[in-house]
Design a protein that fits this description.
With 271 residues, the chain is an alpha/beta fold. It contains 8 helices and 7 strands. The protein has one domain: 3-Layer(aba) Sandwich (Rossmann fold), CATH 3.40.50.720. 45% of the residues lie in helices and 14% in strands.
Length: 271
Amino acid sequence: MSLGDVTGRLQGKTAIVCGAGQTPGDTIGNGKAIALLFARAGARVLCVDRDAARAGSTAAEIHAEGGAAQPFAADVSQPDEADAIAEAAVDAFGPPDVLVNNVGIGERGDGPPHKLTEEAFDHTLQVNLKGAWLVTKAVMPGMLERRAGAIVNISSLASIAGGFQMAYEVSKAGMNRMTLSVAMAGAKRGVRCNAITPGLMDTPMAIRGISAMRGIPEDDLRRERAARVPMGFMGNGWDTAHAALFLASDEARFITGAILPVDGGGSARIG
């Protein structure tokens, strides 16, 4: 469950949440948590996912809570589909006020530089970095014209730490730099852009995917990951969602170009 009353914090706003579908698992993912929380805060949410059924499931949960949502299936790494996302938001709810770029993949061919495959490198950057840029490019002109908008990029602690998944790390480091570029391009015309760097999180994509890849029980992986967090426990999708809500809201009106760690102290650890 999310914590606190968020009613009205995004009232009347239209939000696009990319990656709003839910990877199967026992916990909630970042995208679904963001979509649900934004709707509870009063936003009309376009729930975007490559998997139409998953996008529809998130939108259905929002409807069940009395919120406004529309599912939309799209592959953000394809320019025409990125443009279609912006158009779908306008058609469903009006010009978008908020964009959340939450799509991220990890490829089996990823690894340290000497083991990373060219295919995994190209595909990871195409989806994680180019996809975020393509949707931003589709949405940003309207925000600039209206002189208002908030873009939130979901990056990763891996953008500044790691060493064993070069393609993923580089894609998220690129997203951090893109965040600053977008922030400076939009600052004079009312468009803010910030990023969140989640650390070790208890999300279905992380736990189910890594446990399957390593062949270890999910609960064993959870204990192992929690022990690596300075605060002693992992975060979850709601932690990412509350940070995204703040950055998307007018409460953060004087914040742009920020890279916000949501990592239990992971990025503060040295050595």
